[in-house]
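Collaborator request log, item 7. Partner lab (contact: R.S.) asked for a structural prediction of MoaD/ThiS family protein to inform their binding assays.
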Amino acid sequence: MSVTILFLGPLRDLAGEQEREVAAPLDWDGLLEAVGPEIAEQLGEERVNVACKGKVLADKRTLHAEDGDEVALLPPVSGG
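Returned to partner:
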């Protein structure tokens, strides 16, 4: 039983990988532990969003991912 964490944009560079498999179920505290302190610090910022099952969470701290789910870490997007 596992959850896939996807690291996007600059978070992928910090993680050194595009995705990581972790044990399911996964909640907010488990996510912070799974990604390590540097990425956890980034996730604490309001501008970084978390999506689960293809939907951006209104409150990322309510994360509850189950077996087979995909959790995407979405850094701020700049545009021009």
